[in-house]
Every structure is written in structure tokens, then in C-alpha cells.
């Protein structure tokens, strides 16, 4: 959550490229780099005279130009995701080292934690994607405190932290499915009384 590996991209200095009518290989002299996360980032301003790095932080520098409500919502849902993922992990440890066969027949809490965590992960991806793509977050950052030159997004892709949230959401979804299958009584399985459970069955679960 705290890394700068959420979005990577390049920006084109359109003003400088138009002044010299740059095309082909010359256009690369006007392409800078940008990468950022939820809290901070870095952009390399390049307008034909070499790259100039510039560090920035979202709070409070960019609050006037970014959709602050969406950005804060993403951070809030990240916090909820972390909390409920830890809660789900705690209940998993309880089931693993407690009485798993009995506990798996009443996993309402595990469904709840997994559902909340998976939902928060999906909301994070939707909100952050809309912030980047619909609200053109990279262009707003690239043109921050720029009075002469205008930058446009040349290329843009999500980085490791964004895809980590996707993986976490999928894991919580699969976790809910596994919990369901663990307590499912198949038609060909033999029903046993809970008082006659042996140690081998407990070890299997």
C-alpha cells in the first residue's frame, strides 16, 4: 500500500515537441517517465534538455488537482482489506489448530471476513482504475506546477502493487469456495456421528 509501484508510465512534452517539430527518434528526447503510488511518486520532466526528476506527495501537494474523495476512499478500503485479511487469517489459525472438523460446519464468520475482504479488493481496483483512466491522474500529476509546457500521457500501465490487490481478492474468493466445499456433504459420502470422530479424520481435515 505504501509503495510507489501502483502506476508506471511515460509522458510526452507536447509543447517542446511541437516547437521543434520532433518526429521519429527525436521524439524520445521529449518523453519523460512517471511512477507513483497512493502516497507519493516521482516524475522525470524531459523537454529536449535532459531529464529533471521531481518528487511529489499526494498529501497535501496534489489535493487540489486530484479527485481527493476517490483517492481517500481507495486508502480507506485498503485499510479495511488489511484488517479483515488479518482477521480471516486469525480464524484460519484457530480452525487449523483448534477443532477443525467441528468448526468447518459453522463457517459463517469465515464467509463474512472473506466476502468483506474480496469486496474491498474489488472496490479498490475499480476506484483506482477510474481515478487513473477516467480522471487522467497521470496527466494531472505531470502538469502539476507547469506554466509553460504541457504534458500528455504517452504510455501507462498498472504496476505490481495494483496486481497484488487483484491476487488478494482472488485468494479471498477462492478461500470462500474452499470453505464451502470443506463443509459440503457429498451424496456418496457416508455420514458419521460427530461423537465417533477419530484422530485420523481430524488429521485429514
Automatic annotation (TrEMBL):
Family listed: Belongs to the clarin family.
Keyword field contains Metal-binding: no
Presence of keyword Oxidoreductase: no
UniProt keyword terms in alphabetical order: Membrane, Transmembrane, Transmembrane helix
The species this protein was found in: Manacus vitellinus
Membrane-spanning parts: 74-98, 110-128, 162-182
Subcellular location field: Membrane
Membrane topology per record: Multi-pass membrane protein
A single GO BP: sensory perception of sound
Cellular component terms per the entry's GO annotation: membrane
Major site of localization recorded for this protein: membrane
Name of the protein in its database record: Clarin-1
Pfam families from the UniProt entry: Clarin-2
Lineage: Eukaryota, Metazoa, Chordata, Craniata, Vertebrata
Amino acid at each position: 500500500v505504501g509503495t510507489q509501484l501502483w502506476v508506471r508510465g511515460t509522458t510526452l512534452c507536447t509543447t517542446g515537441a511541437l516547437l521543434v517539430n520532433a518526429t521519429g527518434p527525436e521524439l524520445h528526447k521529449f518523453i519523460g517517465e512517471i511512477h507513483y503510488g497512493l502516497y507519493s511518486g516521482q516524475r522525470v520532466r524531459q523537454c529536449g534538455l535532459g531529464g529533471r526528476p521531481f518528487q511529489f506527495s499526494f498529501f497535501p501537494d496534489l489535493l487540489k488537482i486530484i479527485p481527493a474523495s476517490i483517492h481517500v476512499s481507495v486508502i480507506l478500503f485498503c485499510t479495511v482489506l488489511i484488517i479483515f485479511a488479518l482477521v480471516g487469517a486469525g480464524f484460519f489459525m484457530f480452525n487449523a489448530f483448534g477443532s477443525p472438523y467441528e468448526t468447518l460446519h459453522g463457517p459463517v464468520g469465515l464467509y463474512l471476513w472473506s466476502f468483506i475482504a474480496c469486496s474491498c479488493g474489488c472496490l479498490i481496483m475499480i476506484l483506482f482504475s477510474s481515478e487513473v483512466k477516467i480522471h487522467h491522474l497521470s496527466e494531472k500529476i505531470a502538469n502539476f506546477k507547469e506554466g509553460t509546457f504541457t504534458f500528455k500521457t504517452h504510455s501507462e500501465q498498472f504496476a505490481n502493487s495494483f496486481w497484488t490487490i487483484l491476487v488478494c481478492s482472488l485468494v479471498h474468493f477462492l478461500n470462500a469456495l474452499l470453505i464451502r466445499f470443506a463443509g459440503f456433504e457429498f451424496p456418496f459420502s457416508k455420514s458419521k456421528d460427530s461423537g465417533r470422530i477419530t484422530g485420523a479424520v481430524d488429521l485429514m481435515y
